[in-house]
Amino acid sequence: MSLPLIALFIAAFAFGTTEFVIAGVLPQVAEGLGVSVPSAGYLVSGYACGIAIGGPLLALATKRLPRKTLLLGLAVAFTIGQAACALAPDFTSMLLLRIAVAVAHGAYFGVAMVVAVGLVREDQRGMAVAVILSGLTVSNVIGVPAGTAIGNIWGWRATFWVMCALGVAATLAMAALLPRTTGSSTKHVGLAREVRVLARQQVWTSLILMLMLMIGQFGLFTYITPTLLEVTGLDENLVPWVLLLNGVGATIGVFLGGKLSDWKLMPSLITMLVLQTVTLAVIYAVSPYPVPMIVAIVIWGGLNFSIGTPIQTRILSWTADASNLASSLIPSGFNVGIALAASLGAAMLNGGYGYRSLPLLGAFAMLVAVIVAVISHVWEGRSSASPPVPAAAE
Hints:
Elements: H1 3-24, H2 26-33, H3 37-40, H4 42-61, H5 67-86, H6 91-118, H7 125-154, H8 156-177, H9 191-196, H10 201-221, H11 224-231, H12 239-263, H13 265-286, H14 290-318, H15 323-350, H16 358-383
């Protein structure tokens, strides 16, 4: 792994940790700010909205800035935001600060993935995307448990001070390791062209695949703890270990997906979508049985992130000539999909279907994804189209 990619990974790890660690310290935050735990939950949904809406807008507004300058600015905003969160006097200020950091988060991942694929050869793009994505998975395996433990020992404000220190480390790493030739966003690409590239079938079908992937993942993952407790019958103390194994599987899956993306992207993607459909059906079948369920959950976690890598690599490849809007839509699409998945899962539960039915929702979504991916691949083959050449930078 090259040093510039390591710098981008550190920042991705920082952003990923601050997004997810709030769940680990939510009760303490609620008590400290004088609100109920459900009210404090808006710190999670507000962050997702900041990524989904603010990220693309910020990416477009800053598209003429040199990318290294922009990445450093986003890292500085992250660092200041963590310190401000640690000092937040009330819930409203905390919510607004979280949303501001989320806007930087959404812009960062869009820009960082474009920069990452520009730092490597064309046959290494998938692995470059995997490095950035691994920041999210490793944050769940290491960052979130560590941040939660710090919050439990020294209080939730200490968690954000540590995140501030991590932001300083990420800023210094990118300042030292990213090359100056990282350049800027495409100089002469207007908004109209940014929007037009989204009409390429490889792009909009990939966004559909992303949406289906999120339904297949978070329709169940949102309610994974009560599912493991009530359907599988696991002891409460074992649930964190299952989630840890799921995170380990996800981290392995990211890099597997990167390798497969650089080998045969669409055949690999279609195969993994089929395997994920089968895996979710297996989860439904074995959910009452602890050992098979745990094994299936680990495999499911690995496939989730192995599928995400080629989808994002494909979007970046087919929007290389106007990448600002499309790249920023990737984290937006993920968060919209997460929100939709959680809502669909809630609707099923409120409809009386029970936790065991949730994998069937995911299996149906993945079946739709298989059909869309096959049609898109055949369509692309018949058109003999090739990905665009990246536009010249300033």
